[in-house]
Amino acid sequence: MARNFKLTLAYDGADFYGWQVQPDRRTVQGELAEAILRVTGEAVLPQGSGRTDAGVHALGQVASFALASPIPAPNLQTALNHTLPASIRVLAVEEVSHEFHARHSAKAKTYEYRIYRGHICPPFIARYVHHHPYPLNEDALCDAAKLVTGEHDFTSFAAVDPERGKDEDEIDNVRTIFSSSWQREGEMLTYRVRGDGFLHHMVRNLVGTFLLVGKGSVAVDAIPKILGAKSRSQAGPTAPAEGLFLVGVEY
Fold first, then answer.
1. Which of the following CATH numbers is that of domain 108-250: 3.30.70.890, 1.10.260.40, 1.10.10.10, 3.30.70.660?
2. What angle do CA 227, 233, 236 make, to 5 degrees?
3. CA dihedral for 133, 241, 110, 11, sign (positive or negative)
4. Most C-beta atoms within 10 A of its C-beta, which of 61, 81, 130, 159?
5. CB of 196 closer than 8 Å to CB of 178
6. Is the full-model pTM beyond 0.90?
């Protein structure tokens, strides 16, 4: 009988066109599937907890797949890390119940968005931050972030996802945000958000809107109105991909 595996992964998303496999493009899912094939001889498509976009990084992405191979979990981890490019690392391999699915079983996810506030961005972190040295009212950012906690329809902060049908887009944009806050440490300003799920580009669209609040272009008390409008045109621009990290997934 096939065994079900849960993998925890970290990756530098700068070299990939996102998680999901695409024809003639380098993706994390594609690289992982190829590595599994080389190690076990089995062609499987590992299912991720979610589809990170091109340029987005992960500290704790989770994938699941079934194998007939008798290879022990520790050996599988070692072999995959030997086969995968250095920009993808398997942090843990566990054999789990057949009911487990990386996406369907997820209860919560945490993302971080990192903004470098210094005048000159060090070249060694440029791939992993959004450089924004311009004036910002950071207290206003913090106040705005609190207003998206709780259960809301996040249509205003969702990009059109070509993988979803129109009817699904209309009825399934309600999400619950458990925590939403900004933290400043040195020149790094980090947005950290934890919720039961996230829509396409949702975190980056939240950050783009919060930055408008910090600039004074949008009032803090406009956030509930933007949520209520359920219109993408009411929110701010999509923040660049390189500052976003999938921190972890809870089950």
1. 3.30.70.660
2. 75
3. negative
4. 61
5. yes
6. yes
